[in-house]
Specification:
Number of domains: 3
CATH topology of the largest domain: Cathepsin B, Chain A
Number of helices: 8
Order of helices and strands: EEHEEEEHHHHHEEEEEEHEEHE
Largest sheet: 7 strands, mixed
Helix content: 25-40%
Structural class: alpha+beta
Radius of gyration: 19 Å
Strand content: 15-25%
């Protein structure tokens, strides 16, 4: 059988695999990705489609799961609580004000905050800007739905400034087209946008994925002094925080040297998956923002995208 080419989007770049065929297994593809990610195949989660759905059966062939030549998949690394390594603390400053340089945030220092309690979810509006509102909350400790426009501008400028890194292959569309698209208030944010924001604000952003029970860590390869946490249910992002025992303050940023909170997040991911705290992607409703067609479930969204070329969808509140 002729070889096929697939592209794998990871948080560290785009991997092209062109040595497999339709009869190759998911495990064989994972082995290629694991080598690229410097990980183990069993820790690699491959996702396909829109919204992304995990490929769970490693024994199935690429042909059986519908992977064709030219397909683009997403790869994430499953975090195991037993193997999380500490990240060195290098500074006590962090970018805490949207659009401003780093400065001191005394209330987020672990020595000034009781290291107890549980990670809690702060619900933010489902308005197609939930990712940006969530990032704004962990940076500033409050819900501000207006911060999305500023972050979209930041992302567009960063992407436009580096067309070699942010190529059409990476973005899935021409650089300028992407920059125009992300500025629109109804465009969803995801891995690309998180990657830009983590570097702009010089802070590690950890996303608790409740579908696959993994933590996606953006900026973990950098010596950033603090990390923050978001939770993602397949459609919607919310920020996570800790509240003091007295109830008079919250903690949204944690020193990168704090392993405990990372372990807690890994446990939260497992618990959330076990209790099915994620969106049923076969039943949720989307609106095509290009032709205003209502679509139910990921299959209809995929079929609509293939038949029309439309890829800009918005969540419809139930």
């Amino acid at each position: 059988m002729p070889e096929l080419t697939v592209r794998i989007k990871t948080k560290s770049g785009l991997l092209k695999v062109d040595s497999l065929s339709g009869t190759s297994t998911i495990l064989q593809l994972k082995q290629h990705v694991a080598s690229w990610m410097n990980s183990m195949p069993e820790n690699v989660v491959l996702m396909i489609g829109y919204p992304p759905k995990a490929l769970d059966d490693d024994t199935k062939t690429l042909l059986e799961v519908g992977i064709k030549s030219g397909e683009t998949l997403i790869a994430q690394e499953r975090v195991s609580p037993a193997v999380i390594a500490p990240t060195p603390m290098v500074s006590d400053a962090v970018k805490n004000d949207i659009g401003s340089p780093a400065k001191s945030r005394p209330h987020i220092q672990s020595e000034n905050f009781e290291d107890s309690g549980l990670l809690m979810r702060q619900v933010v509006p489902a308005d197609n800007s939930c990712l940006f509102t969530s990032v704004g909350f962990v940076l500033n400790g409050k819900i501000d739905t207006t911060c999305g426009s500023h972050m979209r501008k930041i992302i567009a400028e960063c992407v436009a400034a580096d067309p070699e890194l942010y190529s059409e292959a990476m973005l899935g569309r021409p650089n300028k087209e992407y920059c125009d698209w992300i500025r629109k208030p109804d465009s969803w944010g995801g891995a690309i946008e998180l990657s830009v924001l983590t570097h702009f604000y010089a802070i590690e952003i950890c996303v608790v994925d409740t579908i696959n029970a993994v933590i996606n860590r953006f900026g973990e390869d950098q010596p950033y002094p603090f990390r923050v946490f978001l939770i993602f249910d397949g459609i919607h992002y919310d920020p996570l925080y800790k509240e003091s025992l007295k109830g008079d303050s919250i903690q949204t940023m944690f020193p990168s040297s704090n392993e405990k909170v990372l372990l807690e997040a890994a446990e939260l991911a497992q618990e959330a998956k076990s209790s099915r705290q994620y969106t049923d992607v076969d039943k949720f409703t989307l609106l095509c923002l290009e032709c205003r067609t209502h679509l139910k479930g990921q299959i209809e969204a995929q079929q609509h995208a293939k038949s029309t070329g439309h890829t800009n969808f918005g969540e419809v509140a139930s």
